[in-house]
Structure prediction request, 682 residues.
Amino acid sequence: MSNDTDEVFVGVDVGASRTKVAILDAAANLIGYDVRKSGTDFAGTADLCMEASLDMAAVSRNKIQYCVSTGYGRKNVAFSRETKTEISCHARGCYHYFPMAMTIIDIGGQDNKVIKLDDQGRRINFKMNRKCAAGTGAFLEEMSARLDIPLEEMDALARQSTEMVELGSYCTVFSGTEVLEKIRQGKKVPDIVKGLFFSVIKRVLEMDSLTDRVAMTGGVVEHNPYLVDMVREITSRDILVPEHPQLTGAVGAALFAREAAAAEMIRDE
Amino acid sequence: MTEEKKVTRKKIEATEVCKKIMADHFYEMDEAVRTRSKKIAWCTSVGPAELLRGMGFLVYFPENHGAMLGATRMATDLIPYANALGYSPDICSYLTCDIGSYLQKKTPLKMAYNIESVPRPDVLVYNTNQCRDVQDWFAWYSRELNVPLVGVHTHRDIGDIGPTQIKDIAVQIEDLVPQLEQVSGGKFDMDRFKEAVGYSRRTSELWRACLETAAAVPSPWTFFDATIHMGPAVVARGTREGMEYYELLLPELEQRIRDGVAAVEGERHRLYWEGMPIWGKLRPLSEQFYSLKACVVASTYCNSWIFDQLDPAKPFESMAVAYTELFIVRDEPFKEKYIADCLEKFKFDGIVFHDAKTCPNNSNNRYGMPERIAKNLGIPVLTINGDLCDLRCYSEEQAKTNIEAFIEQLEET
Ligand code: SF4
Prediction:
């Protein structure tokens, strides 16, 4: 446990949908974090998240040695010293938990990423989804509104499915129409929800091949762990998931902050 | 640190001359239309321009107009007018924005040169070596303006080019002569034709040499500069003025090398751009690469105006070779070998593939090439989604993040 004399390293991940902050101590233990809706005031949300994370870590602001921001709103974080893309930060965060060659599948609120790392954690390749929201958290949010089901109940519903309904379209709008058609046909809601999960998985798996071990991260994975079970089944692979999949980018940013602070110290000596 | 910085760069002095050549090109045609002093031929970018020059036509290139519509960001608003006529948003956005521009009577020529409209054609001449869209594009104008349409149909997706193909294309080009004579009202002049082929050949050699100056480390210019300076090679192909422009530009670039002038200050990464430019975003992209200390040193696009097989001694046959051996006409193994040779010459660290939504012909990422190249050449690749003109197909934020992440990846290695 940390105390007020320890220095800390902060990663702020301002995603299009959620803002996440992770605070690491000198030994890279996660000692504080927070997640909240990014909203429209990125800087304000980042600040609130930071305060909450510092409270959790029980450290004061002046103990922050270095802060790196990432994500869609990375350039809006006034108190960060450096920015890094979410691709680098997810890779870094994931490798921290699983130091091995792997394919990372990140399912975020607004985009998906497939990142390949070698056994040294170096990036070999990465891909982000194309312009469309199909297969991202935004797709599930849109569908939960269409079906009038709270987002947080989707995971439990999908688990109740006995006969999954397959949806064919690429497009979020067309999928919406397809879903209405399935309801009209009398299909059961859990079967449709599982079909929606399957459609997210299909969109992600078509982005790239899976090589080495596979890890899944991101908010959608955190809140819908059944997705991971489905990927396990579909791919017949064991899937690694870090403890807080939604925080992977923020943890990665904090790890970069820790490295940058160390480099700075060496330079200053 | 990957923050973008304010960009200040040493200007290329020849730019003013480049601008003047472009302006004169349009003024000359505008004047000819008004005074009916010369006939105008519209020609596709890699169509038989030398033949047209040899026959006394002034040559206008609608693709250049498309690029201007893209660069001025007028295209995105004009494309829907062509869509409404049944020309899909999925087909060439040069075609759709140009037709939209005609329908709406809006052209960037007005703002740039105070010219009301593009020059009315007397004949429309295409070569399908690049795509079928050019034929459909010109066919629309042919119907609309009741103007004759003639063209060359090139074999596509070919590996080795054989005598059958060359003979066929050479005959097709030669067959254009009587049709064009009917329009021009004059006799075909072989000497003038050969002269135009000679100018094109020399222009190509000089243009190649200009592009190859980017092999220097640091590079004296970037792909983004070259997209501007290729203007004369496109619109003044087959003329003395076109050739002379590169006699001016080449020594300047060579001098920049000697003086150690870097197009990208502190150049750390060198990249290859595969695919069409994103015309409406050239500046922000150029500035982003600059701020990341990455220089785009070579591209398939700018190389596409090298026709060094042209030979005034064998004008028809050499035109057939030059316009068939282009990258866009060739099969995947040829293209991959071509990029490998460029790697050898320009020593880049990565390739950016631009998947242009409306131009499958210039989007070479769609049949697994990036993956094969990454594996065979051992360099990382990135694909960004966008378009040449239709900015509705481009997510700037996503492209920027992808590019930034790609540079971070290069920094890790
Ligand atoms: S090659 Fe592409 S950009 Fe050029 S005219 Fe054809 S479709 Fe349009």
